[in-house]
């Protein structure tokens, strides 16, 4: 029975899982969209959303909490300068998971796109140009 057992272990040790969460979160903040497995996306989504909620109010305390959690100063800088103001009025639900139809080649795992709900204007223009070509 799985009573009172929360979270995903993902077949990794605790330290590896925490490092993977930090790395995937930093990549998501940097690129604003990553492709991963559905299970990893579901595990990382709450981790990211808590950091975005912290960045909505740019105090020194929140910045230090984000740095302690993420351990990547460049990602925290973007989080507080770009993503925090973008989601200021949004009460929650900053990320979405889109499932891809093609499985992964190596182990046939189901893939997904983890991305922010609202994107920057530059990325939307690049997507529109790619679709036009």
Q: Shape from CA axes?
A: globular
Instruction: Give the termini separation.
Output: 53 Å
Largest sheet: 3 strands, antiparallel
Low-confidence runs: none
The portion of residues assigned to helices is 40-55%
**Strand ordering within the main sheet:** 1-3-2
Give the H and E element order: HEHHHEEH
**Count of helical regions:** 5
Number of distinct beta strands: 3
Structural class label: alpha+beta
Mean pLDDT: 93
Task: Give the radius of gyration.
Answer: 16 Å
Strand content: 5-15%
Search tags:
133 residues, alpha+beta, three-stranded antiparallel beta sheet, 55% helix
Question: Would you mind describing this structure in some detail?
Answer:
The longest helix is centred in the first third of the chain and has 18 residues, at 14-31. It is globular and about 40 Å long. It has 133 residues and is of the alpha+beta class. Helix 1 (14-31) crosses helix 2 (38-55). The chain has a three-stranded antiparallel beta sheet with strand order 1-3-2, with helices on one face. The chain has five helices and three strands; from the N terminus they run H-E-H-H-H-E-E-H.
């Amino acid at each position: 029975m799985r009573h009172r057992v929360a979270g995903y272990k993902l077949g990794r040790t605790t330290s590896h899982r925490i490092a993977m969460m930090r790395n995937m979160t930093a990549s998501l903040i940097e690129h604003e969209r990553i492709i991963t497995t559905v299970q990893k996306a579901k595990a990382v989504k709450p981790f990211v959303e808590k950091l975005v909620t912290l960045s909505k109010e740019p105090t020194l305390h929140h910045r230090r909490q984000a740095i302690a959690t993420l351990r990547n100063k460049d990602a925290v800088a973007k989080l507080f300068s770009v993503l925090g103001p973008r989601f200021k009025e949004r009460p929650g639900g900053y990320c979405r998971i889109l499932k891809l139809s093609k499985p992964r080649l190596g182990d046939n795992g189901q893939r997904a796109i983890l991305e922010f709900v609202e994107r920057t204007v530059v990325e939307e223009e690049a997507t529109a140009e790619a679709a036009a070509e």
